[in-house]
Design brief:
Elements lengths: L3 E3 L2 H9 L12 E6 L2 E6 L10 H15 L6 E5 L4 E3 L4 H4 L4 H6 L2 H9 L5 E5 L2 E3 L1 H7 L3 E5 L3 E3 L13 H9 L1 H10 L3 E2 H7 L4 E3 L4 H14 L2 H16 L2 H14 L4 H12 L9
Parallel strand pairs: 3-4, 4-6, 5-7, 6-8, 7-9, 8-11
Antiparallel strand pairs: 1-2, 2-3, 9-10
Helix pairs in contact: 2-5, 6-7, 7-8, 11-12
The structure holds octanoyl-coenzyme A.
Length: 281
Amino acid sequence: MTKHAIAEHAADAAQVSGVTPPDHLRYTTIRVSTTGRVGWITLDRPHALNALNSQLVTEVADAAERLDADDGIGAIVITGSERAFAAGADIAEMAGKSSVAMRLASPYAALERFARVRTPLIAAVAGYALGGGCELALMCDIILAADTASFGLPELTLGVIPGLGGTQRLTRAIGLPKAADMILTGRSLRAEEAERAGLVSRVVPAAELEAAAADIAETVASRSLPVAYAAKEMLRASQESALAEGLRLERHIFASLFSLADQKEGMAAFLDKRPAVFQHR
Ligand code: CO8
């Protein structure tokens, strides 16, 4: 796979958004690149196992929103290093904070911006995904795990509870008994167990993680963009709304997609026995 790593955010943002960003938007804790219709965000604080400090979460949210604003991007992969996707929120940064300070300067707001992007998000996880790192993965639509990955919410060992959605998203993903076990004991799940529990979409050998993530992301990005947006919105609605409301919304959106050129193309291509060529409109 040819990945055009772009060292400086200025160059990347220029490519992504067509504008040169001001200096304060230069990324120092992540790397961002694009390959075809796929955007890549790589967490890059190796000395702290990619712990999520306020700089990193701001940069992740900014990069995701820039990629999301580009209709040439149909999927975003977020990944870390071989050793750690992310070992949680930065404990050194938050240890001395007051309760009020945590409310005022919470990383929550930045990561909610990340979680709200329309573009499908794929987490490619190797090594530790702990605390906020596990919660960051849970904000993504697909979680691809290397066989070296481990997922855990050890916050109670630090005297707090999960604070970036863990008590809610993990419970919806794997059910109450398993989530309660993970949260109350702090026990981590290895990749295989995480897949069996439904926390992880697929597990691959660590050496194949990047290629497998690229493969999934290219497949997702090859679909009609407005249809992928609609599918993602409905997947999210399944977690947030009552069944009757979700089914009503699904019927409405399903019918509305028949106004897209891509619906006409997709069905014509099937009938013509040829691959569809989507125009993303
Ligand atoms: N924060 C800050 N620094 C960290 C973190 C972290 N979460 N994790 C690792 N580091 C640092 C270590 O301090 C160490 O730094 P140094 O070399 O300067 O001493 C370096 O990374 C390497 O770590 P270790 O030496 O500990 O590496 P090991 O291989 O021995 O252990 C572990 C790896 C098991 C991952 C271990 O580092 C660990 O237990 N880390 C903490 C995991 C954790 O508890 N995570 C949860 C954090 S709390 C959280 O995420 C709350 C989220 C909600 C926030 C909501 C805000 C609104």
